[in-house]
Amino acid sequence: MPLTVRETGACTDVGRLRQSNEDALLLSDPVFAVADGMGGARAGEVASAMAVATLYGFAGGVDDLVAALEDVNNRIHTAAQADASLAGMGTTTTTALVTRDELVIAHVGDSRAYLLRDGRLRQVTDDHSLVAELIRRGALTPAEAERHPQRSVITRALGAEPGVEVDVVRLVPQAGDVLLLCSDGLTGMVGDGEIGRIVGGPGPLPERARELVQAANGAGGEDNVTVVLVRIGERGEEDTEPERSGPTIIPASAASLAGAGAAPPRTAEARGRRRGRGALVAAALAALGIAVAVVVAAGLQWAHFVGATDDGMVAVYQGLPVEITADVTLYRPVRVTAVQAAALDAEARAALLDQRIGSRASADGRVDDLLASAPWLATPATTP
């Protein structure tokens, strides 16, 4: 029986030591990807966002996928040469293409792909790093590589050179396989044995993705950490698992501990604000009773803000950016555009997705200004 993607989960976090998140991820069935940006200032963030944005909505075969990565390599390299603030930027990418009878991994850099089958986790990509080359030559043992002073030096990345060699791994998937794509923020902190235990553990994939990130942070969180999980099953398979999420594109700095299918992913600061406001709103309603509830309800009808859906699309929300519980929020989408948040630069995302509260007209106006200033993004919007 032909195979298909049955469930997905994803999570990204800045880690414990870094000031910004230069990782990016993509869930856009049949393509899934992780990118780990590098470069000074905002350069790494730009490169990883360019990589995943290029793959969003991809339709094609293996040769098309390789060509797309070669093209974005050229565009990243050209942008770095033209703009001094982007000098030296590049990004890893580990991308999976799931077809009816084949699993294709396109890989550049030291982000990794693993496959869990019958309870056994195995790495299916080779790291493009200095220590990995030394291990393959027999000059280093894996244990020595963990302490090597150049263990973070990568030997291949998108944008580093005008051309790039993309490794391609082709696998025959089986029902029940779980694919893991991850940045080195996970593998540098957590051993393969623990990774396999978590990936093969109970619970839906979004929970396992969050547990992997928490394990990396618990071990020190020395780098940004990003994971994507994909479970393969048979078409028409009947089960009671949660419905897998729709397309999600999360560029660097646009999400932290964002699980696929969760509330609209925004920055870690925004998530903290939501939790704090949720507690305050819950306490206010309990203390002041129905009168306050009526006032709040009236305010929710007027209040609007601009955010991003868990599909990664710019949207207008009615209500307040407050999450009372995981299932109870004080907002709902009233206008979902076809503008990918990852297509915006970091400054534009920060300005647009700041959760500023205003009227419906003011929120629509901000989105309309975006569409007017970037006509190439002006595609039809939908209203839930």
In short:
This protein has 384 residues and is an alpha+beta fold. It contains ten helices and 15 strands. It has two domains: 3-262, 4-Layer Sandwich (Phosphatase 2c, domain 1), CATH 3.60.40; 269-377, no CATH class.
Amino- and carboxy-terminal Cα gap: 35 Å
Give the second-level CATH assignment, the architecture of the largest domain.
Answer: 4-Layer Sandwich
CATH C-level of the largest domain: Alpha Beta
Sheet-strand content, in percent, reads 25-35%
Computed over alpha carbons, the radius of gyration is 21 Å
Q: Give unreliable regions as ranges.
A: 240-245, 253-299, 375-381
Total domain count? 2
In oligomeric terms, what are we looking at?
single chain
What is the element string, with H for helices and E for strands?
Answer: EEEHHEEEEEHHEEHHHEEHEEEHH
- Number of helices in the DSSP assignment: 10
Fill in the CATH topology of the largest domain.
Phosphatase 2c, domain 1
Residue-averaged pLDDT:
79
Overall spatial form: globular
Tell me the number of strands. 15
The CATH superfamily name of the largest domain is: PPM-type phosphatase domain
Give the structural class: alpha+beta
